[in-house]
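Q: I'm writing up a methods section and want to include an example of the input and output format. Could you take the sequence below and give the corresponding predicted C-alpha cells, formatted cleanly so I can copy it straight into the document?
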Amino acid sequence: MATLNKPRESTVRRLYALSMNVCAFPDCQTQLVTTDTRTVIGEVCHIHAQNVGGPRYLASQTDEDRHGFDNLVLMCRNCHKVIDAVENVAKFSDEWLREVKRSHEDRARRSGEIPTPPDVITALSWTVAVYQAGATHMDFRNAVFKVGGEGGTLAGPGGQGGTLTIVGIASLPSDIEREMRIDLAGGPGQYPGSGGGGAGVLAFEGRPATADDVAAGLTVPLFFPVNAGQLADGLLHILGAGWDHIWVTEVPCRATISVAYTADFGPIAANTLLRFEFAVSNESGAECGRGAGNVVVPDPQGAINRNSGVAMVGFDIAAPGIYELSILSGSTRFSRYTFEVRLR
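A: Here is the clean output for your methods example:
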C-alpha cells in the first residue's frame, strides 16, 4: 500500500468548506483566498507535525492520522509560522490547537459550508509540501514567468534577459512544473533593424537553515580547508587537508582558500537546497572575509541522509596571526577551524 505523504484532496476540500475562508487563529481575520485577486494566503497546518523533530510531532501517529482531517487546520501563512516557531510550541500546544480548530469549524457549521474551487484545493495541497520543506512561501499555481528580454522597438536594442531565482529547492517538482510556465526566450525585434531581447536565466538558491532543521538533526560533522577538492559520484575528493597555516609574502594582502564540508540532514526533505556560508575572522574577532555554497539534500538510499560540498572563501589579511574559519547557516554556527597566517 502506498504511503500517504500529504492530505487527500477530499480532506483539504472539507477543511476549506469549514473555514469560512478565514484563518482559524483567534481574532485573525485574514482571508485564506483573497476575494479581489484570488491569491491563496492560507496554508494547511499540522497540529502534530508530519516530520520527526517538527513542532508537536507525535511518533505514535500513522500517516493516515498525520494527514487526516482531525490533525489539520487552515491558517494564514503568518499565523502558521507563529504556531510552529520553536519558541512558541509550548504556548500553542496540541490541546490549544484542537480547541481552536473545533471552535472555528463549529462556527462555520452554524453559518454554512462554502464551496471550494478546484484551483484552491490544488494550491492549498501544495502548501503542505512547500511549508514542510522550508522553502519560500510562494504560489506558483498557474503562474507565468516572463524572464527573457523584450525585443527592441524603432531600431533600438532589445532588453536584457532577467534571472528568476527560486529559493529553497534544487529543482522544480514535476507536479509544480506542470502548473507554471517559465519563458526564458528573448523576444524578437518589434521593428526592422531593432534588436532581439536577451535570454533569461532560471536559478536555484539555497535557503538558510532554520531552528527546526537543527532540532531535527542537521549537523556538519566534517569541515576543514583543503588545497583542492571536488565532488564526483557522490564522494568528496580532496587534496592537502588538515593543514595548520598558510604563507603570505606581504601584508596587507588578499587570500583565497578552498573549504570542504559534509552535512548530515536528518529527516529534511529530499530536493531541499540549503545555503551554507563561510566566514573568516582575525585575532580581534573582526570578520575579514566570507564565501557561500549550496548543498542539495539527496534522496537517501538508507538510514543516513548526507551530502558534501566544496567552496571558495576570500579574505583580507592585515597582519600575521591566528585566524578562524566558521561554517554557518541561518543563525547557527555549525563548526570552527583555526589556522595561522605566517609571513615569509
